[in-house]
Amino acid sequence: MNSEKVDVALIGGGIMSATLATLLAELQPDWNIQVYERLGELAQESSNPWNNAGTGHAALCELNYMPQAADGTVTAEKAVVINEQFQISRQLWSHLVETGVLPEPEKFINSTPHMTFVHGSSSVDYLRKRRDALADQPLFAGLEYSEDPAVIGQWTPLLTKKRDPSQKIAATRIDSGTDVDFGAVTRYLFDSLKKRGVKVHLNQQVTTLKQQDDGSWKLKLLSLVGRYTNTVDAKFVFVGAGGGALALLQKSGIPEIKGFGGFPISGQFLRTSNPAIVAQHQAKVYGKAAVGAPPMSVPHLDTRVVDGETSLLFGPFAGFSPKFLKRSTWFDLPFSVRPHNLVPMLAVAKNNFGLMKYLIGEVFASRKAKLEALREFMPTAQAKDWELITAGQRVQVMKKDAKLGGILQFGTEVITSADGSIAGLLGASPGASTAAPIMVDLLKRCFPSDYSRWEPQLREMIPSLGTKLSDDPAAAAASLAATAKTLHLTA
Questions:
Q1: β strands within 382-469, DSSP E
Q2: pLDDT by residue (tens digit) across 1-38?
Q3: Phi/psi at 362 (nearest 5 deg)?
Q4: Which of helix, strand or coil describes residue 296?
Q5: CA 341, CA 408: separation in Å to the nearest integer?
Q6: Of 205, 219, 280, 359, which one has the greatest count of Cβ atoms within 10 A?
Q7: What is the mean pLDDT of the chain?
């Protein structure tokens, strides 16, 4: 059988592939770009709005980006980096709205204040230090802080209604936060890409990847409808298959994947669409993680807008499943073990006993316990108003470490071959929110000879590219105002 020849093959129909395909279609419209998705619909795993928090991770409210050091200090460096990355995504979306690639912004992004909320003296002291560390940061301008229950209750009544008045509480609030439906962003990007000639193939599972003598890659595809096979020859391959990326990169045989493993974490949310409750809470409110909890399990009570309907989401409640995707096999974890990653994986298990204990506790937590966790945020919560839904799978990166043998990395990591002909994305949060900067960095790494030619056009799409808005208050304010205007957001 003759293989179809393509310039770019993208594996996975989520936000990462959609973003990379959009950038390449803008920069190199003459290239043959094709997408292969295992499921019958796009954006059904991590990009699905009910499988992620949709926060628009900008470190405005997520406390895990500013942990308190052993000496009690709190610094803003990582939070600023995350915010800078999200601004690149905002600028790209703004450009795509202006050029008609994305529709009216209300269909995928909405202004939603971002808040943090803590209780107890030590947590209040920490939040005050965090506020002080962010006070002079241009991208965090407008951050409000209060320890007054009356003020916090004005921001969002559900946090203070019927709360013990003797409990010490504190909160921050910033209006420039967002709620993002990454599933909608993904679908709209692919709709536009199809009109521009990009072919999207559904129900197509990549079973093997093999590099050929000329440096290109032969992909063997199994059609899950009809059960026939096909092959594709691609000059460049991107593996954006979420939890499935590790297995595919392992099949590719590139040495850069050696030593990497995956640690899957499942989760659940409580959700309500009761209009009387939803009307009292217009914010994403993040708290502090429990001892031993992974960063993506930081509790939060969120406003979510999906398909025009507003709901509230609380969680996530972490758990353990050996699956790497929500719709995959229970053998994902054991089948991912290789001689080269066995030692790092065992070291991670040994060095993260607290996490294991936490996850086991979460697996066996009752619905009553989950409601009690919600009542720490919303004292008036009633069981009858909330349903339990299953979130998406998150596969955290495990990799070699010279000192510890292996470490568990909470974040995303791009793996590229030495020749730049194949790349893949591992990890989770902040993930979708930083798809644009991650994919721009991938272009620079995998297409070095083309990047200098593309860079002027990229700067038109993303004006702050290559600079730090946080170093220039005027530029930061101008960028926030410009994207807010185009995306119909609060600046």
A1: 387-390, 394-401, 405-409, 412-416, 422-427
A2: 568 899 999 999 999 999 999 999 999 999 999 999 99
A3: -65, -40
A4: helix
A5: 12
A6: 219
A7: 91
Sign of the Cα pseudo-torsion (453, 458, 463, 469, in order):
negative
**Do residues 262 and 397 lie in contact, with contact meaning Cβ atoms separated by under 8 Å?**
yes
**Do residues 21 and 189 lie in contact, with contact meaning Cβ atoms separated by under 8 Å?**
yes
461 three-state secondary structure: helix
Omega of the bond prior to 105 within 30 degrees of 0, cis? no
**For residue 326, which of 411, 267, 366 has the smallest C-alpha distance?**
267
Helix pair angle (435-446, 448-461), 10° resolution: 150
Q: How buried is 100 (Cβ within 10 angstroms: 0-12 exposed, 13-18 middle, 19+ buried)? A: exposed
351: part of which helix (H) or strand (E)? Answer: helix 339-351
Please, are residues 8 and 198 in contact by the beta-carbon 8 Å criterion?
A: no
CA separation for the pair 280, 363 (Å, rounded): 31
Write the CB contacts of 94 (distance below 8 Å, at least 6 apart in sequence).
Answer: 482, 483, 486, 487
Selection from 105, 107, 111 nearest residue 307 by Cα = 107
Residue ranges of domains in the chain, CATH in brackets: 4-473 (3.50.50.60)
Single pTM value for the model: 0.93
Look at 60 and 352; give whichever has higher pLDDT. 60
**Closest of 9, 33, 11, 109 to residue 325, by C-alpha:** 11
Mean pLDDT of 467-486: 96
User: pLDDT grade, residue 73 (50/70/90)?
Assistant: very high
Which helix (DSSP H) or strand (DSSP E) does residue 278 occupy? helix 275-278
Question: Position of tokens 């054991």?
Answer: 334
Give the separation between CA 436 and CA 284, rounded to whole angstroms.
Answer: 22
Which distant-in-sequence residues (6+ apart) come within 8 Å of 430 by Cβ? 57, 82, 85, 86, 411, 412
Distances (CA, A) of 72 to 67, 125, 128, 133: 9, 10, 12, 12
Q: What's the pLDDT band for 295 if we cut at 50, 70, 90?
A: low
Q: Is the dihedral of CA 423, 424, 430, 436 positive or negative?
A: positive
User: What pLDDT does 387 receive?
Assistant: 95
When mean pLDDT is compared across 9-23, 54-68, 165-179, 340-354, the lowest value belongs to 340-354
CA–CA separation, 365 vs 328, rounded Å?
Answer: 24
Pairing mode, strands 405-409 and 284-286: unpaired
